[in-house]
Amino acid sequence: MLSSSTACRILSFTAMTVVLAGCSTPSAYQMPMIAPPARLDSESPAERRTALIRESNQGLNAIPLLTVALNDENLVVRRTAVRLLASHGEPAAESLLIAFTNNDSQVRRAALQALCLLKSSDALTPTLAAALKDDDRSLRLLAVQQLAATLPVTGERLELLQAAAKDADPEICRIAQDATWPFFRETTLLKNRTDWDHDVKTIQKIQLPKEDWAIMTDPDNDGHTKNWFAVDFNDSDWQRIPIEDHWEKAGIQYDGYAWYRKTFAAPEKPAKYNAVELNFEAVDECAWVWLNGIYIGQHNIGPSGWTIPFSLDVTKEIAWGKDNQLTVRVYDSKGGGGIWKPVHLEVLE
Ligand SMILES: [Ca+2]
């Protein structure tokens, strides 16, 4: 078996031959202008590294040499080789795929970073699938970020993200879960409608009951797959707590996802109105909301959203003069969590 330095030397010769063969007007007088052969057989890693850089500066012919150097016994030489391959872009893509199978996780990571810049997520799917199984967390994180970056998430990318949503690392898990979360709706409030040039007046403001909301924690984040938002879902075995305070005050010491459900009576239909909105004075921290089984929108701006009021349009979803079923999925990353301020139904004109 060839040692890596012997293989480098052979490839160095091959690369030089290609350089010479590539000259359009080869001539004995031009020979002295070509850099002396690289010292890739040097015992010194610093000299081998310098030689790699010099070869790489000559152009794409250095790619085979750099590929062999990925297996150099010295980690600095190996990592220099992958960095130089990345600098050659698309022509080095095949070599970067080889680098991605390297024993050195830093070489694998540098290769994957370069490949993510060169190829679309769909073209890179097999590589990203392998990266999601890497022992090195940074490779799994890079892969999940890449898979989640292109919307919509469908097909094989969706399947991979669904698998990554069960990763042992909480950050990787969260990115994958967010990317595969199937509910989104943009709400348009009356005051923001471009076709609306009147002052918006609140003609009825009905505070929802404070007491007796059903709550269930969802540590596996799969309540939506069990239809916890459905009107006819049976929540009779869920704990009852008041809103307008953090769930910790009701004895639930918990950070993560949790679901609230409440049935409330809506008033009779007003003679005249232009919109109906559900206003949350504050939910700590993020919220996803259904009314009568229909998804109506979200408040999802991260931890800083815990004290920011928000409203969602329910003009089409409200059932006048009847019971209405409200479901709120809450995410709390730290500290107090829950629907800690009042919720109102607002009839607007
Ligand atoms: Ca919090």
Q: What would your notes on this structure say?
A:
- The chain contains ten helices and ten strands.
- The protein has 349 residues and is α+β, with helices and mostly antiparallel strands.
- The longest helix is centred in the N-terminal third of the chain and has 19 residues, at 4-22.
- It has two domains: 4-180, Alpha Horseshoe (Leucine-rich Repeat Variant); 190-348, Sandwich (Jelly Rolls), CATH 2.60.120.260.
- It starts with a helix and ends with a strand.
- Helix 3 packs antiparallel against helix 4.
- Strand 6 (286-291) and strand 7 (294-299) form a beta hairpin.
- The strands form two sheets. A six-stranded antiparallel sheet has the order 3-2-4-9-6-7, with no helix packed on it. Strands 1-10-5-8 form a four-stranded antiparallel sheet, with no helix packed on it.
- Bound molecules: calcium ion.
- The site of calcium ion has 8 residues, from loops.
Kindly state the percentage of residues in helix.
25-40%
The outline comes out as: elongated
CATH class of the largest domain: Mainly Alpha
Number of helices: 10
- By CATH, the architecture of the largest domain is named Alpha Horseshoe
- Main beta sheet strand tally, sense and closure: 6 strands, antiparallel
- Identify the CATH homologous superfamily of the largest domain: Leucine-rich Repeat Variant
Radius of gyration: 30 Å
Main-sheet strand order equals: 3-2-4-9-6-7
The secondary-structure class comes to alpha+beta
End-to-end Cα distance, whole Å, is 84 Å
Q: Report the average pLDDT across residues.
A: 89
Q: What are its keywords?
A:
alpha+beta; Jelly Rolls; single chain; 10 helices; binds calcium ion; 349 residues; Leucine-rich Repeat Variant
